[in-house]
Amino acid sequence: MIMPNSNPFSSLSVDRLPIKIDPCPIVEAVFELRFASAQPWATMPGLLYAQIRERYADQKQLPLAQVPDEIRRKEPALTNLPLMQFLSSKFLVQLGPRVVSLVTKPNEYPGWTAIETELRWVLDRVAKAGIVSEGERLGVRYIDFFPSNVFPNLHLELRVGGTPLSDEERQITTVFRRETLTIRLLVTNSAIVGNAGGEPRRGSVLDIDAWFGPLDFDAFTDGLQRFDEAHLAIKRLFFGLLRADYLTTLSPAYE
Q1: Among 57, 7, 26, 13, which residue's Cα sits nearest to residue 143?
Q2: What pLDDT shows up at residue 194?
Q3: Which of 34, 56, 180, 219 is 20 to 30 A from 123 via CA?
Q4: 129 Cβ neighbours under 8 A, 6+ residues apart
């Protein structure tokens, strides 16, 4: 549900934003550009690979690439998903007919400074590849995992008749706007996520996706700035949601 005239999350604030917490809860961070292109899909992987192969030498097809084109075109949920993946030591670049993204490796978050440097390089190479005719969506998504029920540790609760729910399994999703940025927040306490070794673990997920629409960015002029703005909005929301006493248990480090 979009609440354009009411944003209770705007009241969340922290005096200082930590530069890191321990253990780091970030499972994955995705920096995505959706676009329209004049290039046919058959030529896109080669055009992009020619520009990024010095850092992303390895490549592989994703399972969706085996789905016939006509089926993907008819199914809206598949339109903006990647079909190819290019790998470096710290990042993945994913490519589809209408999307390109920089993704951190699972459970190996390298920090914003490293991401910003890599984003600058990848955007430059995507521009040189000539696969983007027009940007349609520029977004950042962070997925965080907590091994216990995270709801008691958040400034977020669900009430019925004034009484907070204490259900064992809960999922809350809301969408709201902050100026030109749209933010989707999903919190669940019944998620199963793989650890660094791929073994499943059960706990809570805090998933924040923030994006700009087609009229609010130009990928190759202010794209890096927009990624930075979306990242900062997510960071402020994340730390604003955490209760102060819980944050102290995560050994926050400040500049």
Answers
A1: 26
A2: 82
A3: 180
A4: 44, 47, 48, 50, 51
